[in-house]
Amino acid sequence: MAVVIGAGSYGEVTIRNGIAVKKFNKLSHLIQEFTALQYLRNCPHIVRVKGTDFYHLELHMELYDCSLRKWLEEAREKGKASREDIMNILRDVLIGLVEMHDRGLAHGDLKPGNILIRSKHKTTGAPIKPSAVLGDCGFVSLAKYAKVERTAPSYRDPIIAHDFGHDIFSFGICFLEMIGEVKINRQASYEELRKVIKDEVSESEYRDIILNLVHEDRDKRPTSRELLDMLFAMEIPHWRSPENSNNSKLLNYISSNERETIRSSMKEAVTRFEINRGKKGFVALLTFLAQKGVEKKYYLVHTGATLMILSAMFGKSGFKENDVNDICPKNYSTNTICKILETLLSSDIFLDILLVP
Question: Which of 40, 92, 182, 189 falls between 20 and 30 A from 345, CA-CA?
Answer without folding.
Answer: 92
